[in-house]
Amino acid sequence: MSIGKTLFSRTNLDILDWTIEKLPPYLTKDGVWEVLGGMRNKPLYHLLINFLWQTGARISEALSIKVSDIDFYSKVVRMPSLKKRKPQIKTIPLQGDLIGEIGAYVGQEGLGKEDRIFSITRQHAHRIVRNACAKAGIEKTRSHCHVLRHSFAVNSVLQRVPLPILQKWMGHSDIKNTMVYLNILSQDTRDFYEALEF
Q: How far apart are the C-alpha atoms of 93 and 123, rounded to whole Å?
């Protein structure tokens, strides 16, 4: 088979179609920090936003998390990937600062192992994120929970997290869904060119 036929096979063209899809709305790292900065005096609000930002969890997944789902020693959270037909447990690493924040909140609220960390409704969670973003001057189109999920994915791609790993973290059954975030790399190719060796 010729190189041309391989490169432009139906499968590869399908993949190209997926990668040129419009990048979903997201916040930059600085944008998220701006949002978090306005929530320093509201432990629940800050933790919810930080958790969504650092895990890429869907809001339904985040709200289902119990204290027992957090492994404070190994620094991971185990949560169900609720979008799949057969819910599977996905394991996502946690940064030390987030583990510390979760531990402090659990202690402050006196939560037990089987207590949900975020004992609020979806509507309340969406309102928290919307109001926090508004306070930081973020437009409405980027002021909802799912934008933080997209922001996590974009941040991961920019820091060269391999796509199969990001797919597992996001809980995507099809890697094509994860490939959408590769579009961020096409927006500025200078770093790639300067890293080339000749």
A: 27
Gap between the Cα atoms of 194 and 154, Å rounded: 21
Greatest Cα pair distance, the chain, in angstroms, is 66
User: With left for phi above 0 and alpha for psi between -120 and 50, is residue 77 left, alpha or beta?
Assistant: beta
Q: Six-digit token pair at 116?
A: 């949900």
What pTM was computed for the model? 0.82
3-state secondary structure of 39: coil
Kindly list the averaged pLDDT for each block of 10 residues, start to end, along the chain of length 198. 41 44 86 96 97 96 96 94 72 96 97 97 97 95 94 92 93 88 73 70
**Domain residue extents for the chain:** 25-179
Burial state string for 66-90 with b = 16 or more CB within 10 A and e = fewer than 16: ebebbeeeeeebebbbeeeeeeeeb
Rounded to whole angstroms, the Cα distance separating 113 from 103 reads 12
Q: What are phi and psi of 90, to 5 degrees?
A: -110, 145
Question: What's the CATH number of domain 25-179, 1.10.443.10, 1.10.260.40, 1.10.3720.10, 3.40.50.1220?
Answer: 1.10.443.10
27 conformational bin, left if phi > 0, alpha if psi -120 to 50, beta if neither: beta
Instruction: Specify the DSSP class assigned to residue 14.
Output: H
